[in-house]
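Q: What changes when magnesium ion is included in the input?
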Amino acid sequence: MSESGKSEVKIRIPAAVATILEGLEAAGFQAYIVGGCVRDALLGMEPHDFDVTTDAAPQQVEQVFRAFTVLETGLKHGTVTVLSPEGEDGARVPVEVTTFRTEGSYSDGRHPDAVSFTKRIGEDLARRDFTMNAIAYSPVRGFADPFDGRADVKAGLIRAVGEAAARFREDGLRILRAIRFAAVLPGFRIEEETARAAKETRALLSRISAERVAQELAKLLCGSQVVPVLAAFPEILFQVIPELRPAFGFSQNNPHHVYSVYEHSILSCGYVPPAFHLRLAALLHDSGKPYCYAEDEEGIGHFHGHAARSAAIAEAVTSRLKLDRCTCERVRLLVEMHDIRWNGTVPMVKRLLARTGEEAFFELLALLRADTKAQAPAESARLADYAEMERLAREILVQEQCFSRRQLAVNGSDLLALGFPAGPELGAILDELVDRVIDGRLPNEQEALLAYVRNRLAQSE
Ligand code: ATP
Ligand code: MG
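A: The predicted holo structure follows.
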């Protein structure tokens, strides 16, 4: 399997990882880096982590590195994590070391029925999903590349190892991984037969756990090529987000929109910054539209109430994907608020800030901009409004102007000290003060606010 003589490409391996490879080789084992790190290095990208694979059994790896800390992170899959002492700054670096393994049959479409260790790197590479991910490299042994993954990396092809449909039937997640890699790796496309098999077997995705789907979906949506990929493989997306299917081809019959709801949704997704919650919010922001469609006398389409409907869909999607509560809540909020129309006033900016909080306010602006860019070209005039909203919000925050109870010059205890009764009225009067300060009907000054409250107390006596 070794092809050391043939390899012109050298891969730079960090010292911490080289220590592990050398330790295993010195003990008489084979050791390679493998998978994503080799692929990324061949592409000239900095790998984000290096996985090591070896013919040493996990216990043997532990024995070789007994002087280091070894964590049994995935013992039943043959994986241990060695804390290599050779980090750049002396810090210990965790390196995952997995024993060469083969996988038996997959009767559930998710997990192999049994894994067994092997002494042959080629057998380990054969269980991997795509040829570009089935390349191993060792500084002393050279490349192990039985499926010619390097040629596919060069050509930018995502090609299943072996028979694509059979590989997708083993583990349906690979279908989503195929389009995820197409979205993440610029210039890559899915080889024809692999693409055909992915479409054909897409229903298998429904057997995959929410957690595994969510992880791949996050990477897919944050990919730089997300728009063309979701345009080319909508049916695979609908397998994990069926709520978007009605948007496909749904014409908006409205001069403000030149795209169908689905096209508009994926374009919006591509326009927001690559953070999962933002991309997901953009993808789902109009998902309720097909359910809210009505035409006026002129035959123009309207979608009254679609933001609330889309927010309910977003809630269903994020909870099915088992995203953390914070993410679910943020996606829902952004979707629910995406239909606001700024009236050009400062008080409205303050009220929005109060409702969203600082972080979500700027995320909402990103979504509004994306939404606008993904509509008809004439709509772009609205971008100037968003720029102005952003400028105003930054000014409000820097100057610590009052937009919520937090910046109010009095608090609950001040009012209690005046003799204001505890209870729900206390919250209500604080909100009333905030309201008046926002509208400029009261200055945010302690004396003025207390005087107002005193006056109210006197009136109610
Ligand atoms: P990334 O850069 O996103 O981490 P990666 O290729 O390293 O990409 P991982 O999910 O970290 O992807 O998996 C590491 C390697 O394990 C892959 O390169 C591939 O060889 C193999 N692999 C991962 N998931 C599967 C799977 N579902 N089926 C077959 N092989 C897989
Ligand atoms: Mg990886």
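Observations recorded in class: Residues 1-7 have pLDDT under 50 and may be disordered.
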